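# nightly structure sweep
# worker-07 picked up a monomer target from the shared queue
# config: single-sequence mode, recycle default, output format = structure tokens
# input follows
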Amino acid sequence: MLLHETILCAATPTTGPGVIALHDLQTSSTLASFKQTNAAPHGTAFVCSKNGQGGILFAAQHDKSILNVYNFQKDQISLKIVLPEKLSCIAVHHNGDFFAGGTAQGRIYLWEIASGILFNSWDAHYRQVTVLKFTHDGAALLSGSEDSGVSVWSVSRLLDNDVLSELPLPYCILSDHTLPVTDIVCGIGSFPNCRILSSSVDHSVKLWDLSTRSLLTTFQFPQPISCLAWDLTERMFFAASKDGSVHQMNLFREREGKSGSHVLEAVGGAGVMDIIRVGDEDQPQAHKRRLISVGEPVVSLAISLTSSLLLAGTSAGIIHIYDIPSHQLLRSVTSHKGFSITHLATMLKPPDLIGHVSLSLHANPSSSTDSIPVKPVAPFQRMRDTKSREAHEITMILPVQDNVYEDEGSFYTADALLRDHDFFVQPAVASAGQDAVSLQSRVNELETEVARLREQLGKAKGVNDVMWETVVQKVVGQGKQKDAGASAEDERRRKRGRTDA
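# output follows
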């Protein structure tokens, strides 16, 4: 199956090494596992396999300053990177270009993955950085901290050589939370025309508009919120807490219009004073319909690519899969009991996943160059180096093009091109003699037709001349008769006049 959705999860035990695993979303079976890792929440990130390059996995070890790098083609560690200090959270650019890491001291590092160059490192917060997220277009980096602040950083400014010696200034600071920030989710859209959700220990989830740098709505929950999941269409989001409850919040509501019909309208948007309290006693039934009781502390959430399934990872190592419209529990993944599911995401099955596809481009590969290349990852610099930054040497793999005239963005396929080429070119080359004979016969037919038309034209002209002469003679004859009659009448009148005299 070409579009095969899988579950990517990171399971971390209390003591000892953990595992990163891929499961089938439909059968819950284990497809692959990557061991020797121990990542904390927000300490796992990945880049999908695409554009002819194999994907990569990153896992920051919470007990040491080590970053483990994996690829989907083998279950062992591909690269161990020694970091300047232990990272509390990480984030990867969606195209796999940049890697960001936050520390317990509030510092943020920004590396280029292909070259390992440390482009920037700065003190972004007063306390530990708890979560980092790139926007979907990669133009901005968002950071949440235990100091209750959410900062938005422009990536282009962080990479600017002209301000290398200056302290980076954030695009904006969203500071309406009162306790540590636990999670951030970015909406679809190019920066800054997008919205974000942030959750906090202060029992609130806040919806922000980055284009106006303003707070749209505050959702107040009965318990502290630990993690979030947002539907791609931004119709609803899920907020989970450590008591095992998952709240569904619809960002639209139905009301009765002026004509009596039911219409849908957006929820919130009134700003700082707009607070929606979840679980109010005046709407107990509506709240119960939007509440999922997992029964165990929920530490990670994810929504399937079709937005029909909700995945909840618990501290007991169980992944529960719910149907979103009915909130019915469909099945559970119990392969990681005794662990804590610190990371949860859904993705299409990698085409280069170990044990599930042949990486060879030929039937009998003769060398390792016949396999799918992995996206280049260089060891990260521990300090900023001006010389390497000026040289800026990176390793990159150019995609192979079987046909240099083929445009990936065009629907005009190579088969259609060859078919049209044969239609216009091949008949003239294959039957040149036949074409000459047919052309001569066509010329003779046209000459005969021209002679026939000339003959018909002469006949028509003769008929027209006869008709014209007949009409002219008739008109002239009638005129003469009228003139002769008038002269005779005048003569008679003159004679009468003489007689009377």
